[in-house]
Amino acid sequence: MIEWWSILLFFFISFSILIFIGVPVSFSFLFINVIGSFIFMGGVQGVKQLSLSIYSALSNFTITPIPLFILMGEIIFQSGIAFKALNVIDKFFGKIPGRLSILSVAASTFFSGLTGSAISNTALLGSILIPEMKKKGYGKPFIIGPIIGSGGLAMMIPPSALAVVLGSVAHISVAGILVGSILPGLIMASLYTLYIITRALIQPSLAPAYESQKHSKTTILKEFFLFVLPLFSVVILVIAPIYFGAATPTECAALGCLGSLVLSAFYKKLNLAILKKSLEVTTKISCMIFLIIAGSVGFGQIISFTGAGNGMTLFMSSLSISKTTLIILTIIIMLILGCFMDQIAMMMITLPLFMPLIHQYQINPVWFGIIMLIAMDIGFTSPPFGLLLFVFKGIAPDDISMPDIYKAAIPFILCNLITIILILVFPNIVLYVTDIVKH
Q1: What's the pLDDT tens digit per position in 158-168?
Q2: 4 occurs within a structural domain
Q3: Which spans in 59-139 are helix H?
Q4: In the structure, what pLDDT confidence band is assigned to residue 231 with cuts at 50, 70 and 90?
């Protein structure tokens, strides 16, 4: 009989080798699943069973919000509406220490509710704010850190495509994950802002004060109602029906798409070129995510069929560890994996192993899912291979090196760790809101 740990080792080593030689995550996992199902599930019959399971997973209603959320964000960004809103938000901050850095956090929090994409957030804010920050004499920590740190907020603030993937793969309430992540996301943004203001007061050279163009309150309010409030209404259109139980995440995602189309038309930015580009990007990203979900389902089935998951569960149970210790162990595993692989790959490897333990220990799965999201957000910005670090490097000027980026990301990683600790100590930060949705 094959030991459970040898099966897990086979998958981990095979996956690591394929990723190392440059095979995309989705194809790596599918390839390993086909080989694994042939070896461990009875040859050709095992492969047939694998294909049936993948078909069942991809035809599941719970994953339909993913392309709709992505399309909603792409329409807003491709039409250029987001840029106008960013200019208005900038006018609200006056002479606050670290104004441009705080602007990146505020704008990222706002745009997270429109895109659900950390990469889009980071690329957009970086391309707009880096030249302005350098012009105003900002130090590298205040140029790099806030953009990278707050870019990951798109994983927390609905609509988050990653949250939908997590809910679908882990069989957790998608509505619960989407709504339950709002308050933790806002706590993270508040901690970022507090850090920026505090450090700007201690080291004013990092964020020199400068005279900004004065705008009348009437002008600012007028532009707010014209450019920001309509975008905010799209966010409400997505979140409110889920919160009150009036619509499913899929229906809300469709409403969000409709809202973004109406806004684009209202601003006279909607044309065939924008629609074509939005659909192209949405199709590429959605196909990649669906392939990854297929791979995750296959992995979970093999783990279940071979008894590897049950073997690990029994082993962990024999250690007689507490719930808190279990959660801390899972967080440590996620943080380590986050330094070397992307978030989807992390979910594919860990969820089929973690979820049986979570159910056995009677831990609230939505609460655990939120903690996983934050841990994956940390992975997005963790040296040496956090994806947002390389996204930022791709848009940064030549005088910003990778060591500069690594150092600037660390304070924001610590802010995320503080958020996890707060959720561990005060679980109602998540559970209170999800209980309302449930009822």
Answers
A1: 767 778 888 88
A2: no
A3: 65-78, 81-90, 99-115, 118-135
A4: confident
